[in-house]
């Protein structure tokens, strides 16, 4: 297990600098082999129960408190200091948001290759099952694609444009022109990046390979924005109505 106690403020500052300069920082041996095995077995069970298709968990259903629970509890002070190092100032206390992406089956092709920004400043990906070398599933990153400090409305418009089919095709073409980084991932390591400013996705897996990851998000760059609060409320109402229509 990664030793958080040995990290000094100067080392956290170096991690923040690597994220801003190179796009990603890697924490070696973040979780133990035993934790990886336990998490991957749980993920496999959920995928099998879902007909060997992908399972996505987020928010209150992100398996927080159960999947990698010890890591979740240890992360808070580290992410708080890292958040302050990236912003250059203290930030408001933020809860860690945990999500899980267990990609498998035909549905995985619809989820892979989708480029997006995260709503939170810091993103930490912990792979618990990855395809064998050469069989896809790499982390694809286009760092520093937009500023960190900008109004919420600008970020919202950028996200909406990014979600269009036209822009997704443009972004997919960037994969082949050298502007993106392709990072093979190793289970048990932690991959830190500034998800709010970096466009990112994952490469498709070849054949029947599966890709299971746990993601931790921290730091809302638009904390306190009334416009964001209104947008969140409208989104929740929209999804509530759509879910009721499916009943």
From TrEMBL:
Looking up SUPFAM superfamilies in the UniProt record yields: Clavaminate synthase-like
Q: Tell me the superkingdom of the source.
A: Bacteria
Tell me the protein's name: Phytanoyl-CoA dioxygenase
Write down the species: Croceibacterium soli
């Amino acid at each position: 297990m990664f030793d958080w106690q040995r990290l000094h403020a100067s080392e956290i500052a170096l991690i923040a600098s690597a994220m801003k300069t190179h796009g990603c920082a890697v924490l070696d041996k973040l979780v133990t082999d035993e934790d990886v095995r336990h998490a991957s077995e749980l993920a496999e069970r959920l995928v099998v129960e879902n007909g060997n298709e992908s399972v996505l968990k987020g928010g209150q259903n992100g398996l927080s408190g159960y999947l990698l629970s010890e890591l979740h509890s240890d992360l808070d002070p580290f992410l708080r200091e890292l958040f302050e190092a990236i912003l250059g100032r203290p930030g408001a206390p933020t809860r860690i948001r945990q999500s899980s992406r267990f990609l498998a089956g035909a549905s995985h092709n619809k989820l892979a290759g989708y480029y997006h920004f995260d709503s939170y400043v810091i993103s930490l990906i912990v792979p618990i099952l990855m395809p064998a070398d050469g069989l896809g599933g790499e982390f694809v990153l286009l760092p520093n694609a937009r500023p960190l400090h900008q109004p919420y409305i600008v970020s919202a418009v950028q996200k909406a444009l990014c979600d269009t089919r036209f822009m997704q095709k443009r972004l997919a073409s960037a994969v082949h022109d050298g502007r993106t980084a392709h990072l093979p991932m190793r289970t048990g390591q932690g991959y830190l990046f500034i998800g709010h400013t970096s466009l990112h996705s994952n490469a498709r897996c070849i054949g029947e390979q599966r890709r299971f990851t746990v993601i931790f998000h921290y730091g809302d760059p638009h904390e306190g924005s009334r416009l964001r609060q209104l947008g969140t409320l409208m989104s929740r109402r929209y999804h509530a109505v759509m879910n009721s229509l499916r009943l």
